[in-house]
Amino acid sequence: MANRPGSLAGLTTLFAHADVNIVGIASEVRDDSGLVRIAVEGEGDTSGILSRAGFASVESRLLSVEAEDTPGKLAEISKRLADSGINITTVYGTALGTQVSRILIAVENTDDAFKILGAGE
Fold first, then answer.
1. Which alpha helices (DSSP H) does the chain contain, by range?
2. Is the pLDDT of residue 119 over 60?
3. Alpha-carbon distance 69 to 50, whole Å?
4. Which domains does the chain have, with CATH numbers?
């Protein structure tokens, strides 16, 4: 994604027009371009949406973990995965001022991590 005003609006409009709900997003900008991670609801044509607009993409499965919004909860979750030999490759999330936070986690073995955490995908 280009590092200029309106880039994020243009990118997210692609998903809005395709009626695909974005449930998580994180971006990192370096110099004149950036990397955007987008988590969508369901299994839409995410790669197709992006490639038709000229974006390169890599698709991966995520765990969506709802957890208590308390100190140490992410440490507990990541330790459970580490103790089972599962490497976390990406994590992002937020809390909405409630008692629950949503954490999106990409791991090397999603099926095993799902069993360990009982997370919704």
1. 7-17, 46-52, 73-83, 110-117
2. no
3. 33
4. 7-52 (3.30.70.260), 63-117 (3.30.70.260)
Output the CA torsion sign for 117, 113, 91, 78.
Answer: positive
Give the helix/strand (H/E) hosting 30: strand 22-30
In the chain, how long is the greatest CA-to-CA distance?
43
Alpha-carbon distance 84 to 77, whole Å? 11
Q: Are 67 and 103 in contact (CB under 8 A)?
A: yes
Give helix 73-83 / helix 110-117 axis angle, nearest 10°. Answer: 120
Q: Please report how many Cα atoms fall inside a 13 Å half-sphere around the Cα of residue 73, on the Cβ side.
A: 16
pTM of the model: 0.80
| CA 93 – CA 59 distance, rounded (Å) | 18
Torsion of CA 95, 120, 63, 59, to 10 degrees: -120
Distance CA 66, CA 31 (A): 34
- Mean residue pLDDT of the chain comes to 90
